[in-house]
Design brief:
alpha+beta, 4-stranded antiparallel beta sheet, two-stranded antiparallel ribbon, 25% helix, 35% strand
Length: 103
C-alpha cells in the first residue's frame, strides 16, 4: 500500500486516510495534475475477493465519487473541483480518459 505524505501530490490529498491501494495510487497521481481538481479525499480500503480492476466515476452533486476496484481491495475517492462554469464537466471528462488509459 502507498501512503500519502505531507507535500505529496501537490497538497491536494487530505490526510483523513493516508493509505492508497496501488491501483488507485496511479489514478491519484494523474488526477493531481488536473487544474480543475482542488481536493482529493481518500476513503477507507475494503478487502474484497479477486476482481478485475475497474474505475467507476459518479457525479454525486457536491463532488465526484470514484470507486476503484482492484485485486488488492476497493477504495472510494471523493474529488472536489473548483467552483465555476464547466470545471466539474471538464474534470469528469479528464477522469474518464485517465480511467480508460489505466484499465
Amino acid at each position: 500500500m502507498a501512503t500519502a505524505k505531507a507535500g505529496t501530490w501537490q497538497g491536494k490529498v487530505t490526510q483523513s486516510h493516508s493509505t492508497v491501494i496501488p491501483f488507485a495510487k496511479k489514478f491519484v497521481e494523474r488526477v493531481c495534475a488536473l487544474p480543475e481538481v482542488t481536493t482529493i479525499v481518500l476513503g477507507e480500503i475494503t478487502s474484497r475477493g479477486r476482481a478485475n480492476p475497474s474505475i467507476k466515476i459518479t457525479d454525486i452533486g457536491s463532488c465526484i465519487r470514484i470507486t476503484v476496484k482492484a485485486t488488492d481491495g476497493l477504495q472510494v475517492l471523493r474529488i472536489y473541483t473548483k467552483k465555476g462554469e464547466g470545471n466539474k464537466e471538464k474534470a469528469i471528462s479528464a477522469l474518464n480518459k485517465i480511467s480508460a488509459e489505466l484499465i
